[in-house]
Design goal:
457 residues, alpha/beta, 14-stranded parallel sheet
């Protein structure tokens, strides 16, 4: 059901409650006060109809109308805080920003922090207004809504200094900061961490002026999540700084073309216990030797991604399967050297795996799919643009724990193979985009027979 439909139903219920309230109060145009007066004074005009008690169901419904029994019209309904709390939660964060412009009452009500949980505002400094009054009002609006995260785009060192100087909550309340496509230098990064000591989540993307020197002088030991991508100066020394300065690090997302196998041996003994999530994306220089360093340095990983690490082979996957038994999520997409042998290792040794991503692994065949079909704990399987055929798809019919399945771009699957997916009654999401056999008729059939599943065509 769409958001607009849900909001419409909530308004309808509220207005219906008003109508019932009017009928009970006015009794055909006579007020409750007049009715009671006539009844108590024995007026001859009082009838049994007026004294009749309302139906129990109506009374119960009025009492359960979320405190809206006393409302008389639609205007009161849209000013009632209990109604608005439920009503506004049907809308997205962007839509709430628009609704806050309706009137001052709605703005004041919507600026409560409960409406902005897990929302990250984005400030783009390219078209940033230079008027200090406009900036001050904008910072005040952020402060009222109680955001604990911020995303800064196209920023410079001066922009960072202006932000931390004129936004007081940045020093105590902000916990997560993302800096994207910005020309900040090592000096700007150092200034940021000096002014904002409470940051525990940091993302740097497209910041080509930052070097490992800036990370050595800036990183805060409180950081538990760090993401670095598309920063051309990131190399092995960067990983060295991360391993030495962040003893409590739990999640590391790294996309760097110049990181080699040697960097993966830098992780400290403490990080071997704390680091649970490691995602290495498009690290082209990493080979099976790097995998050896990973399994020895970080034996407690629960999430590992080697997406785009094109030099990883079946031997590397065998090392992962034998040594990282706690893995719940494994992503080896875009690894062209992976074959069915890797899936055999995964199926035999990673019995607790819940998510497996095999996008663009072109050497995986129906035989490999047969191996992973024996994994009873697997819940999410991604096979985008793979060479799977109907025979391999038949192996998946027995995977009763599977809730998400992606077959996007699988050109060798026929409609008959897709029809068989209706045996997966527990399926909640099925992706079939760019799959030639996923016609409108097939999609309609799947939706009818998998009513709880979202079919993406």
């Amino acid at each position: 059901m769409s958001t607009i439909r849900k909001a419409y139903m909530e308004i309808s219920n509220g207005i219906r409650g008003l109508r019932l309230h009017r009928e009970q109060n006015h009794n055909g145009g006579i007020s409750v006060k007049e009715t009671l007066h006539k009844a108590t004074n024995g007026s001859p005009n009082s009838s049994s109809k007026l004294l009749r008690s309302p139906k129990p169901g109506i009374v119960k419904r009025l009492r359960n109308m979320n405190g809206r029994v006393g409302l008389d019209n639609v205007r009161d309904l849209f000013n009632d805080e209990q109604f608005l709390t439920k009503f506004f939660f049907y809308f997205s964060a962007e839509e709430r920003g628009t609704l806050a412009q309706v009137c001052k009452k709605w703005k004041s009500f919507l600026y409560q922090s409960k409406f902005w949980v897990d929302v990250t505002p984005i400030i783009s400094f390219r078209n940033w207004d230079k008027d200090p009054i406009v900036r001050r009002k904008f910072y005040e609006s952020l402060q009222y809504r109680g955001f604990d995260s911020i995303c800064l785009q196209l920023a410079t060192d001066d922009d960072l200094l202006d932000f931390v100087s004129h936004f007081p909550p940045s020093k105590k309340n902000l916990r997560s900061v993302s800096i994207r496509c910005s020309n900040i230098t090592d000096v700007g990064l150092e200034t940021l961490f000096k002014k904002m000591p409470c940051i525990y989540r940091l993302e740097l993307s497209g910041c080509n002026e930052i070097t490992e020197t800036g990370l050595w002088t800036s990183l805060n030991a409180k950081i538990v999540s760090l993401s670095i991508s598309d920063c051309i100066n990131v190399a092995d020394d960067t990983v060295g700084a991360i391993s030495q300065l962040l003893p409590s690090l739990y999640e590391l997302n790294l996309q760097a073309y110049h990181v080699t196998d040697a960097a993966l041996a830098f992780f400290s003994a403490k990080q071997s216990y704390t680091l649970g999530v490691l995602r290495l994306k498009s690290c082209w220089e990493i080979t099976n030797h790097g995998v050896v360093n990973i399994v020895h340095s970080l034996p407690n990983l629960t999430v590992l991604s080697l997406s785009g690490c094109s030099k990883i082979t079946d031997d590397g996957v065998e090392l992962i399967a034998e040594n990282l038994r706690k893995l719940r999520i494994l992503d080896i997409s875009w690894c062209p050297r992976i074959t069915d042998s890797s899936l055999e290792y995964i199926a035999c040794d990673l019995g607790q795996l819940e998510e497996l991503v095999l996008d663009r692994c072109n050497h995986i065949t129906d035989i490999g799919i047969g191996y992973i079909s024996t994994m009873t704990s697997l819940q999410r399987l991604y096979l985008r643009w793979s060479q799977i055929r109907d025979f391999g798809l038949q192996h998946l019919y027995s995977m009763r724990s599977l809730v998400i399945l992606s077959l996007a771009g699988c050109v060798h699957i026929t409609p008959n193979g897709l029809y068989g997916l209706t045996r997966l009654y527990q399926l909640q999401e099925l992706e079939l985009t760019n799959t030639p056999s996923a016609t409108k008729g097939v999609g309609h059939f799947l939706r009818e027979n998998l009513p709880r599943c979202i079919v993406l065509e």
